[in-house]
Specification:
The chain is α/β, with parallel strands linked by helices. The chain has twelve helices and eight strands. The chain has a single domain, classed as TIM Barrel (Alpha-Beta Barrel), CATH 3.20.20.70. The chain binds zinc ion.
């Protein structure tokens, strides 16, 4: 039998065997969700070879990261960087205590991700009609219907798997400009109603500011309670950390970030893509908010990234400056 590829429609109807799920102790105060192997690698022109991806993910895990978005189940014709995603998932689920997350744009991708053994699926749904049509050729409403089908597939075949939706372009869109906050909240409510476990907000285009972030996440948490999810911030205009801090002040406790701010933006030279994991971990630890991540090991993982993408710019202020004299890690939350 030929190996499944992300584009295959496997027609999954049977319940899959239970997958070993990661254990959770001890709890840091915030969860840093590393998205570099997905968001970062899909934004660079060169493809990181599979063996380098696996080595990089292992190094990130060794640094203490406990949730990693390892790839995207999209057809290899669209994103050749992600052609090996099933193999990457299968390797990453062997790492102890790691929640292996995969982005799935549609039902077909969700089937492949579940068969590969992913612990958590993340589904991007754009709040901007223009962005949604350009990106997935579907309206946000059509995407909500798709999400409902993915939740049904999860319920029928792999009930232990988490499903998260991320509202993309939640803070602005390069195609349509302003995205009304009421529309973002309405979409988040529709996604929660469709059965996802969490709904996060993404600054896909790097347009957010801290006042807006605080306002929107405060509203999201008031509307969704525990179903309010992660902050996914980009550093296109240098506000990534400020936006994460604003989200934290609004009660957010899960943050997406990417090692070395991988990705960047061709229109903002010198700007990183996602908020830089190293700088975000440093900020929280220095504030006394534990992340569970060891900065020395995290910085060492940059060598794996460099080896896999020679010549690609890798960002981060903390790795440049080093840890300050007298730096101390925050204490993790006591486990029950
Ligand atoms: Zn992103």
């Amino acid at each position: 039998m030929r190996a499944l590829t992300p584009g295959d429609n496997v027609g999954l109807t049977e319940r899959l065997p239970p997958r070993p799920m990661p254990d959770t102790p001890p709890l840091p105060a915030v969860l840093i969700s590393e998205v570099g192997p997905r968001d970062g690698l899909q934004s660079v022109a060169i493809t990181m070879p599979t063996q380098h991806k696996l080595a990089w993910i292992r190094a990130l895990h060794a640094a203490g990261l406990r949730e990693i978005e390892v790839g995207s189940f999209v057809p290899a014709t669209l994103l050749p960087q992600m052609a090996d995603v099933a193999e990457v998932v299968r390797d990453a689920i062997s790492l102890p205590g790691l929640t292996v997350m995969a982005l799935v744009p549609n039902l077909r991708g969700a089937e492949s991700a579940l068969v590969a053994g992913a612990h958590k699926l993340t589904l991007p749904v754009s709040a901007s009609l223009a962005h949604s049509l350009a990106n997935v050729r579907r309206t946000p409403q059509e995407m909500v219907a798709q999400v409902r089908q993915i939740v049904a597939l999860r319920d029928a075949t792999a009930p232990g798997v988490q499903v998260e939706a991320g509202v993309s372009t939640a803070f602005g869109c390069t195609l349509q400009g302003l995205v009304p906050e009421d529309e973002v909240i309405r979409l988040a409510l529709a996604l929660a109603e469709a059965g996802v476990d969490e709904v996060g907000l993404s600054d896909t285009t790097g347009m957010a500011n801290p006042a807006q972030v605080k306002r929107l996440f405060t509203r999201l948490r008031a509307e969704l309670g525990d179903q309010a999810g992660a902050a996914h911030m980009h550093n296109t205009r240098g506000l990534g950390l400020a936006n994460c801090l604003a989200a934290w002040e609004a009660g957010v406790r899960t943050f997406d970030a990417s090692q070395g701010g991988l990705g960047g933006c061709p229109y903002a030279p010198g700007a990183s893509g996602n908020v830089v994991t190293e700088d975000l971990v440093f900020m929280f630890e220095a504030m006394g908010v534990s992340t569970g991540v060891d900065l020395t090991r995290l910085m060492a993982a940059r060598e794996q990234l460099r080896a896999g993408l020679p010549g690609e710019p890798i960002h981060g202020m903390t790795p440049e400056a080093g840890l300050p004299l007298g730096f101390q890690y925050a204490k993790p939350r006591a486990t029950a």
